[in-house]
Amino acid sequence: DNSSFGQGIVVAVLDSGVQDHVAFAGKVIREFDYVVDSNGNPIPTNADNGHGTAVASIIGGSDSRLPGVAPAAELLSYRILDNEGYTNSFTLAEAIVSAADAGADIINVSLGSAGDSSLVRQAVEYAGSQGAVIVAATGNDGVNNVTYPAAIDGVIAVSAIDARGEHLDFANSGIGLESGGMAAPGYGVVAAWPDGQASNFSGTSASTPYVSGAIAAV
What we know:
The chain is an alpha/beta fold. Helix content is 24%, strand content 22%. It contains five helices and eleven strands. The strands form three sheets. The protein has a seven-stranded parallel sheet with strand order 2-5-1-6-7-8-9, with helices on both faces. Helix 4 (175-178) links the parallel strand 8 (156-161) and strand 9. It is globular and about 40 Å long. The chain starts with 9 loop residues before the first strand and ends with a helix.
């Protein structure tokens, strides 16, 4: 019985937003939307954009059919990925700082980039000074090189393994993983999807919330 796992812990999900789903029945998810058009107006989330919903359900799903690792954790949703799955370093840094200021104990970042950013590094350092732990995906390029922000010192980098505990070919590894990183299930994970559905979710995006949920549980 893991129903009390994550009690009193706040987990921020920096992703594509979390849509209403039975997996979050009884939970109140605070939402922050950073996706706007050139005039600063919010851009509605596509109904089939389920990445953030899946990630959040792995962390804190409270339905027995789609159980999260830490269902008692409080979730904060920071929508920073647009409907095509893109964001920028400034928005990522802004969301990390905001999540830390909102009291997040854990910040889940199931996204990454090959480019380093001093802004993101500063945000990571600030979040750490506020006591937040950042968990980020290594990327799905099948290379021996970890994406940012997972590659930043102090961030927990998460790669992916299959059901046998073996490394998945698409999951990035490398120095950023060897010095303080880990791996978690990342192939065919059953997770929540918009419109009350469930989906087989694969990638380091799926493995990262397992680690965030585990930290919340501990």
